[in-house]
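Chain A, query sequence.
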Amino acid sequence: MTPTTAEAAPDPLGAALRLPVWKTLSGRADAIRRTLPPCPGTAEERHSWLCSLTPEQARHAALLERLDALCEHIAGRPALGYSADNPLPDAALQEAEGFNPQLTALIARYRASRSETAG
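Chain A, predicted structure.
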């Protein structure tokens, strides 16, 4: 799964951030997915699966859902709770920060440029 270019980012830095942020979030999601028991497909089985998780596994499952939703949103399939007009929501930036020093620096530049244009 790779991000689409159907929705243009508001600026070149935002466009440059989409793929590395997506890769970071996707990598985190894959790492979490490997630590959890396989998730079944039906709603009833999924409920039983969720009830069988330890509290730590349940927290990881919730984070996994958040990361997957953010990846889908960045890839051009808007997720619930995030504006379709914002291809790079702040929640995605927050989840990507701290895992790669260069990406974290780019995120800081992006936020600074957004605050300059907003204020």
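The first helix runs from residue 12 to 35. Helices lie at 12-35, 43-52, 55-74, 90-96, 101-118.
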